[in-house]
């Protein structure tokens, strides 16, 4: 028996951080051990490069190099994720492999090429994508546009790339159009609750 790995995905400013924090607090309130990880993890050596790249639009790197940096940043935490899961800590991730693939795919890189560097990384037991049909609800939110990828047309391309994961068994869409934070949280909880008592199989990988 091990703890589950749960990922929450979505476009920029889609409410991921709000929902991951609410989920973590609810798990803590139910006396479960839980750890929240956010990707990119900007405090590591590689994460600091990524942070500079995201905030400084004059900082130039090839699309391939950027993609591999994001993947390497996830690999920096691979051992930590595995250790937490095996020691019965539920791990909730705010962005994960899926974002890496979707954002690079939106730049024109091929899906499988983008996924390949993460083959072998722990695969979530539940992945929840916060989906908007009305893109204006994302692009008009406070703070949108502060970082490199926060452009409405690019976000539409990213959304199209995320759809390629809909055939993955762990993937679940939650439409958040015109829903309150609590309504979305309740839908997330309904998907997470069946696995919070533990997983019987070994850690799966991409």
Automatic annotation (TrEMBL):
Enzyme class, UniProt record, top EC level: transferase
Pathways per UniProt: Pyrimidine metabolism; dTTP biosynthesis
Gene Ontology MF terms in the entry: ATP binding; dTMP kinase activity; nucleoside diphosphate kinase activity
SUPFAM superfamilies: P-loop containing nucleoside triphosphate hydrolases
Cross-referenced InterPro entries: P-loop_NTPase, Thymidylate_kin-like_dom, Thymidylate_kin_CS, Thymidylate_kinase
GO biological process terms, semicolon-separated: dTDP biosynthetic process; dTTP biosynthetic process; dUDP biosynthetic process
Keywords per UniProt: ATP-binding, Kinase, Nucleotide biosynthesis, Nucleotide-binding, Transferase
TM helices/strands, residue ranges: none
EC number: 2.7.4.9
A Pfam family: Thymidylate_kin
Domain called Thymidylate kinase-like: residue spans: 8-188
A Gene Ontology term for the protein's cellular component: nucleus
PANTHER family the record matches: THYMIDYLATE KINASE
Family indicated by similarity: Belongs to the thymidylate kinase family.
Name of this chain's protein: Thymidylate kinase
Gene source species: Dekkera bruxellensis
């Amino acid at each position: 028996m091990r703890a589950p790995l749960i990922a929450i995905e979505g476009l920029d400013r889609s409410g991921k951080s709000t929902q991951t924090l609410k989920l973590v607090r609810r798990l803590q309130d139910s006396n479960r051990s839980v750890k929240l990880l956010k990707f990119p993890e900007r405090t590591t050596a590689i994460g600091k490069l990524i942070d500079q790249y995201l905030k400084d639009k004059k900082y130039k790197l090839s699309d391939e190099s950027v993609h591999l940096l994001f993947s390497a940043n996830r690999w920096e935490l691979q051992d930590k994720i595995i250790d937490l899961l095996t020691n019965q800590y539920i791990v909730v991730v705010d962005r994960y492999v899926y974002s890496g693939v979707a954002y690079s795919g939106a730049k024109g890189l091929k899906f499988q090429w983008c996924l390949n560097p993460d083959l072998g990384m722990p695969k979530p037991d539940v992945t929840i994508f916060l989906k908007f049909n009305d893109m204006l609800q994302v692009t008009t939110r406070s703070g949108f546009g502060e970082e490199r990828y926060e452009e409405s047309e690019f976000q539409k391309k990213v959304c199209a790339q995320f759809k390629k994961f809909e055939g993955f068994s762990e993937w679940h869409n939650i439409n958040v159009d015109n829903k309150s934070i609590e309504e979305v949280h309740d839908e997330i909880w309904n998907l997470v609750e069946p696995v919070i008592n533990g997983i019987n199989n070994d850690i799966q990988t991409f």
